[in-house]
Amino acid sequence: MPMTPRAIRFSILLLCLTVAATSVCAEDSIDSSSRIDAIIQLDLKKHNLKSNPPVSEAQFVRRVYLDVIGRIPTEEELAKFYADTRKDRRSRLIEELLDSPGHESHMFNWLGDMLRVKDDYYRIGKTWTFHTWLKSQLRENRPWDELVHDLITAEGRLGENGATAYLLRDASMPLDSLSSTLTTFLGANVACAQCHDHPFAEWTQRDFYEMASFFGSTAFERVDTRKPAITLRDKNFSKSNLVTLLQPNMERVIFDSTRSTAFPEDYAYSDANPGDKVMPRFITWDDKKNSTLNGARPEQLRSHFADWMTSTENPRFAAAIANRLWRKFFGVAVKEPVTDLDNIEDATNPELLRFIAQLMKEVDFDIREFQRIVLNTDAYQAQVSTTPAEGEDFRFPGPLLRRMTAEQTWDSIVLLLRGSEIDKLKTDNAPMLERLVFPFEINHDRKGIAEDREKILDFAKTLLPEGKVSNGAGGRGLFMKSSKRKVKLRGEDSWLRASELPQPMPPTHFLRIAGQSAREVADDGSTEGGITESLAMMNGEVIESLMSNSAVIKIAGKKKNQVEQIAFLYRTCLSRLPSNRDTKQCIAALNGGLDLGEIAWALLNSREFMFIQ
Questions:
Q1: Tens digits of per-residue pLDDT, 75-110?
Q2: What are the helix (H) ranges across 452-540?
Q3: Do 158 and 433 contact (CB within 8 A), yes or no?
């Protein structure tokens, strides 16, 4: 049988990789998805393994909806896909989903876990401007290097510039903030180097402080606004009112010429003395040397740091985000853990990691384009594998069988409750913070702020709801106008996508029970499951609502007969038609006294629903 053009190109690429594994074949017709597949195929062949068979259409559609927009498809969306008879309908669906509002919601959840996004930071107050800023970056498909550059260089008041929330998050712990930044964006395991030379990596304590000095002239002002609020309060405005008003104005990131970084008092190495001023120097991993930055003005140091970190010449930056995104789709990264890229050769497939890092650079850090390439690989569109035995490397014959994240589970259930309109329902509380920003500068000294008392209180009066006079007893929400959609923690008004709810939800909410991160530690979301989640799925409030008053049950009830009702529930819950056996069992259950809500309950509590195949 003659070889197809794709098979011929594939064979050529395999030959190129076999001759020189680190080179990229010059064949222009070979696309990046095929290159990834060829690298994986070569690695599998070396280990006497084979790729998994291609995934079925039903499994593909459900998988790609969950992985790209974070929820299962509706019956209408399934029908639309199957009605498309073009050969490239899978690629077209991937393209459509990547450009959809649902993708923005799903990626916000993913980044929220990575960046520890919360509604409220300790003594900073509400961070809604950060949420809105981050969502706008995703909506505009801002290149990853530009987005991260803005996080590192952000300046000004929290109420005006939401990106400042990233640095304000750990304002009282600047060394921990640097460690977290390097770990998250570069996969550099540097935590030990804060106190001593790293015992297992190239990092020294001097290296760490030389990197920290790029932030030495930056003040991350996380002011305890309770004290100035006491100074300003009067019979009209209580302390709590003024704390709310002051926070988005006094929490800020600014240049401070009086600040610099010095070696700690317990510095024990001979290459510097405790208390000496630290000169900023970059790490260059290729030759394990540092590069001194000469002639830079102090106010530009943070910008220079961001340039260095996000540069295509930095061997870590592209690899770190590419490795994270690979784990998102395959269930395991090429190099685990994603927070430690100190030795690329320890990756399961070093050549694959090098290639996807280079690919990230070639697409100019376009996160959507990178995902589009990975999603179109044969490896991603293969059947799943179970988790290998402990100590055994996973070589990507297909994705791992994965449990849904808490957000994917919640968003899928809310879809069944409310319908596909959930992708369009958005909350934006940032305007409530932005309206509190003073149109003037104030004295940020806690004692000196009394000099600005009159103009602050005059401005505060303009924020009072029309016709309302404060008697000083009002709560923190005095200045907070109601948003267009009031979000409650219970009932129908809380049937919004996870990205539109408070970040994170309270510990008793379904999302947290199912594994949503508390956002205190990066990458802390869990898909382990457990008894508490099982109980919430069996008899929790949201499941009871789904069984009795949901969109899916109402539509199912309007079908002509039991066979159509059951088929509808299977398509909407599991994205497939029921087998003859499934149909017979469900009809018997309905005739035995169960209702459609209880059939849906059984489907939602099945392993097939909870896992991404």
A1: 999 999 999 999 999 999 999 999 999 999 999 999
A2: 453-462, 510-513, 531-539
A3: yes
